[in-house]
Amino acid sequence: MSKALSQSKVYLEIARLGGIAPILVLLCAAIMIGQAAYAIHDLLAAIEDNRQVDQLPKFELQRKPVNSSAYELYASTLSRLTSKIQVKATAAGLEITTLEPQAFPEFLYVITNIQGVQKGIVWEAEEICLGKCAGGGAKAIVKGMVEEIQVSLQGDQ
């Protein structure tokens, strides 16, 4: 009888759990619906963030070389600073030279004054030679670039 009693307890336990199973299924379904709602909320927030990023400004630096007439103007202006330094306009830029090693301070003076002649032009040294150049002086070739900043919205691409 003990065996029959234990089998009836097993059937009783299975029946009792059978009543709890639908409740557990409903509870799991409610949790999954809640998680789905949070996921949808996060997705909508991410979409809104992307819309706001499209409205942020985008900055681009545009660089254009200086034209040859500007090089001529610079050469004539810088030549007047000192007679010991020769400034010549070339297709590559400005060629600044001196044959006298003692004129190094004046050479540096001319180079440092290039930037101040006109706003909006940035100067780059293509070549600089000091002391061991042809003739023993100093030589520099500098090139000017006009820089402009273009501002647009990131979404306008």
Overview of this protein structure:
The chain contains three helices and five strands, in the order αβαββαββ. The protein has helices spanning 2-54, 68-79, 104-113; strands at 57-65, 86-89, 94-98, 121-130, 138-153. Strand 4 (121-130) and strand 5 form a beta hairpin. The termini are far apart. 12% of the residues are buried.
Strand fraction equals: 25-35%
Rounded mean pLDDT score:
81
Largest sheet: 5 strands, antiparallel
Q: What is the overall silhouette?
A: rod-shaped
Helix percentage range: 40-55%
Number of strands: 5
Q: What gap, in angstroms, lies between the N and C termini?
A: 84 Å
Radius of gyration: 40 Å
H/I helix tally: 3
The helix-strand sequence is HEHEEHEE
- Structural class given helices, strands, pairing? alpha+beta
Which residues sit in consecutive blocks of at least 5 with pLDDT less than 50? none
Summarize it:
The protein has three helices and five strands, in the order αβαββαββ. The chain has helices at 2-54, 68-79, 104-113, and strands at residues 57-65, 86-89, 94-98, 121-130, 138-153. It has 157 residues and is α+β, with helices and mostly antiparallel strands.
